Amino acid sequence: MLQDAAGAVSARAVAKVDEAAVIRAVQQGDQDAFEQLVRAYDQSVLRVAMNLLRSSEDARDVYQEAFLRVYRNIHTFRFDCSFHTWLYRIVTNICLDHLRKRKVRREEPAVVETTDGPVDRMDTFEQEAAHADPERRMWNRQLGDRIAAALAELTARERMVFELRHYQGLRLRTIGEMLGTSEEAAKNCLFRATQKMRGVLGDLV
Amino acid sequence: MTCDAVTKAIPLYYYGELAPDVEDGVEEHLHACASCREELDRQKSLATALDQRQLEPPPNLLAECRHELIRAVYREQAPAVHHRASDPWGLFREAFHSLWHPGIRFTRPAGAVALLALGFFAARFVNFGQGGGLSLAGTTPDAIVSSIRSVQPDSTGRVQIALDETHRRVISGRLDDQNIRRLLLAAAREPDNPGVRVESVELLKDHSASAEVRSALLEAVTHDTNPGVRLKALEGLKSFAGDPDVRKTLAQVLLKDVNPGVRMQVIDLLIAHKDDATVSVLQTLVGKEDNSYVRMRCQNALRDMNASVGTF
Fold first, then answer.
1. DSSP track, B127-143
2. Which residues 10-49 of chain B have a CB within 8 Å of chain A?
């Protein structure tokens, strides 16, 4: 067991050593290395964008913009933070822009793309409980409705911190680094986000 | 701690983001206070409810994004191609130029894009020229010109051009279809496109029971220039790690591959079936390995096999 753990640690360390070599190769214009770097991170980038923006089209835009910025600016990466943090700083900035623009327009897409195709966000909970009794389905619909309302109450930054902590499992210190703020500020954001959501969802959870 | 302080700390407590001493204080309080425990339960219910709304991207979205990115990077690399080539012949010349200089992976789509554009323009010429007698006989809008064989002007001011064209086709089928399998085997050797090789090897790796697939995987592990492809091929060979031919190749790869990640994975495959030859290969590697993690893995493996770490 201990040996497995040691193996995992050394594998991670090797991956880090490798990654630095790959990044240096990208900085020297190696296209294969760029593709390798993209493939190492692009699934999680797409998932974050999809969950934050709830739209395939917006997630696609974020993906393109983020990796093009990486491509254009990789020569400025100086290894003073991890590449993961650097990349997510780019991704979160682009997502924040999208969220802010959307906030200005007061629009939240009613239909979201899922693995089963486009689904009305209000029906998501019904689908998951297709065989549940009518009362349960009604409750799920209400909950889905209220969660959407609760998320709409959050500021772009609160939503970002909440997404990265709750869904992506990142530590608040890392999130703070990505957003160019302190761990303490990220903690406050998470606290406020949770309080707001509990305020809206209070009697349902 | 007071109930008020604990209530405020509960969200951060739930996410494991409190300082250890504060966390101890919260736990101590929760142990004794039923109403704060209810508060924690509400936090858990909120988290459970929110978990239900996590989305996975639609299945094809990732592949589409990767494809678009390649095109966008190409445009970044060679903006001049798009601005300079305003006429079909300009596109045509540049397309040929890029096909003749395929050193960089992204130049191939450049050629394809421009040649597809040529197909489009060619189709327009056919329509335009129907009254005037200009004809690109048999050229279809999705045709890709691969080479010009001859250019023959005549006395009337016309020119006859003989060209070869290839046609893009989309073929779909199941992996157990022999034709699909054959195409994938060819794609796994596609020299200029590691992305295609990775996807093909990814699909083939679950079919290593077939001798020809296994042979393609071994070839990829030994000769592919892209470490991602080599790692994928190694995954496919996992269930044949006991096969003598596979082991022989893996031993050679272990001693010559430049990528430490690949070497680590080869070690894992080799030590799944312990034999004297493996001991000897690992002992040789320990002596020359310059990556400390791989060397450590190697030494641990030798110790596990009760073998000496060096050849002495």
1. HHTTTTT---TT--TTE
2. 11-12, 15, 17, 42-43, 45-49
